[in-house]
Design brief:
By secondary structure, this protein is an alpha/beta fold. Helix content is about 45%, strand content about 15%. The chain has two domains: about 240 residues, TIM Barrel (Alpha-Beta Barrel), CATH 3.20.20; about 80 residues. The strands form two sheets. An eight-stranded parallel β-barrel has the order 3-4-6-7-8-9-10-11, surrounded by seven helices.
Length: about 350
Amino acid sequence: MKIGDIDLGDRPVMLAPMEDVTDHSFRLICKEQGADMVYTEFVSADALIRNISATTRKLHIDPKERPTAIQIYGRDVEPMVEAARIVEAAGPDILDINFGCPVKKVAGKGAGAGMLRDVPKMLAITTAVVKAVNIPVTVKTRLGWDCESKIIVELAERLQDCGIKALTVHGRTRSQMYTGEADWTMIAHVKENPRLTIPLIGNGDITTPEKLCNAFSRYGVDGVMVGRASIGAPWIFHDMKQMLLRGVRVPELSVQEKFAILRRQITESIDRIDEYRGILHIRRHLAASPLFKGIPHFRDTRVAMLRAETYNELDAILLHIENDIIPAVAEARFCDNNTDN
């Protein structure tokens, strides 16, 4: 699959753009684990133009994480064009336009998925941004605003006519937010349209290597974007890519390897910000990590882990989980499975 001149290979798997998640450190780790392309956190066009430091920092790209897309959002043509030029100067491989974010503070103001209620403006922004930059422009959007307006099949054609080089479709409407199941049948309808010639990337509920392979084989997409399933588990890209390559599941990383990755995220988050705020930032990953799922009587330890305010305190709790709790649970389960009835 190619986006412009960028060759991502056969059946690429991508890290979705996620606010407060896909920072530089996390993108690099996901890339190392097998992600074929990564996306930055989405960037406000208005904040870029005002040169807000917290926003401009999001434009930093490490050469090791490439190819990288920077995603922008906004609700008016001129600011989006100016922001696109600022982004191009930062040197990403791709510029992505966010027409899919469903949260109220974005969509409620007419940006993100809010553009699904004003398609003419969406198309005007897309056309203007494509003309303003020399790097490939892509779009990420949803099926429609609600279940009564699933417009994505026609919309995909119209966005293609604006000059975009690839389209990502999340298989929900804006009104669904992240509830219910992603409708991959609708994504397949987009791909089946003979008039659509640009690559189509599917997104939504890809949480296992099996679901990833099914997205390619059953729905025919050119690429797949993985989002929430990677939070606290960047090694999911290792498992997914290996299954794509070999056709069967391969042994997962060891518990020790996974804890090492989490510790790396913690230390790099602290180095990037500071100890207190760096730990606050990483709590989302710790809360979501499947490493801690299904551990019995874990509530008090979990609360302590998510309340820790220093690296030493947090690391001591992780060591306890890694060296004491998880081995004890594994041994108990092994004994249960081997008990004669």
